[in-house]
Amino acid sequence: MEQLKSWLRGRHQIAVAVYSTPAAEAVLANNGLTIVDFLRPMSLVNKLNVPMRVGELSYRVQEVNLRLYAGDSMFQPKSEVIDQSLGQLLSLQAQRHTNLQPMPNLIQQVQSDSPETINPWFYAYQSEFLRLLRFTEHETLDHPVAGIFCIPADKAQALQIAQKLLTPESQLPLQASQSMLPLQDPMFAKHFVLVQDVAAGMDEARAKSNLTALSNTYGAANCSILRLYGSSTGGAAVAAVPAAVFQACRHPNMPGGGAGEPEHYPKEPPGGIGHSITADDMAAAGQLLKDFCERTLLPKLEERIARLNLIISNARKGFKNKLTRFWKGAATETVQYQDVSYPYHSIEAQMRCVADLAYLLGQYDFAVQMYRLAAQDYLAAPNSRWYAGAEEMIGICSILLGDPNADPIKYFNRAFEHYSKVRGWQARMLATRVMLITAAYQAATGRYDVYAA
Q: Is the pLDDT of residue 56 over 80?
């Protein structure tokens, strides 16, 4: 069961969008890396001690696991692209694991062997399937809650460049549908980074001047300089970081990009990926992300949760709201189910958002309360997609909480039933996702052999 809990916790981490200028990206492109590639190996930020309040609970955050994406890659690819990618993965796995030897005791082997032995291809398929279904409108678990905005340290008018990064030329689908909190919103955490290639001779005085200009506008706590000493092309560095460190954090890219990855990675240089990146450079990346979490991300998340909680509480106070909910609760199954998306500023979306934020911070008790509250409204609407998503998360939280009286299968069945009522390709994939989680739970509780048979 602990393995299942670890897998569920790892499926979603705090999503952070990285926006950068071409000149800032060029600092690391000589190493075959994007800025996201460079930061990802350090995305597990520990040795923190940040006070936090979620609902009525006060505690200290010791560790944060970030999920870093290029801002323009945070969208779900088209259905035909996902189908093609999954088909290619299956073909590759079939070639890798095909065994033409006879199996005389097939039934016995299926019942006795571990799932990994029986279906060695399945876990790679499951992982990619779930990854490609990120960035949906009805759940904010993969929506960015913060942005890191990277600017070259030696450029004039850094403040104007930063302001331009806050208004991207093209909108993501989540932004166009108003499902995602806008970058300009005060509740969207922002951290501005001046990327200084010291090895290439970037001027220190200009970097400090730019830092002062940004700090005066956005606050000193939300601005940093990232100094890199081995990023230039002046030969291989001593004790360079192995390329595998960066490659392990990459996922397959697809035509048109999306699912958190660019359409193309930078060209690999003759010296290999990251050939002149040193351990000191990686330590600088780690310190940057630690400063970002301590000074920008966690304080803003605490403020955002408190504000959302207050908005939701005020919106639901009074006899009128209680009476309305009483009549809504009497709705029958003959009501026509709708499939609409709530904008980020609606009370329905805010309930889902605060539940997701609590979940990402590991506060599953508070998250369950908010998911249940939201589920009642979605069912009364009735909005099957949003209701199914809330029930799916209640089931996951009940596993993570280890409540012996809870029945996760009950919630997963509700989610599957209501996803099945929604038309379209994505709803079918979401219903399949619920069944993948259900199967993982059944295997973890020792019922695998029954279901396999």
A: yes
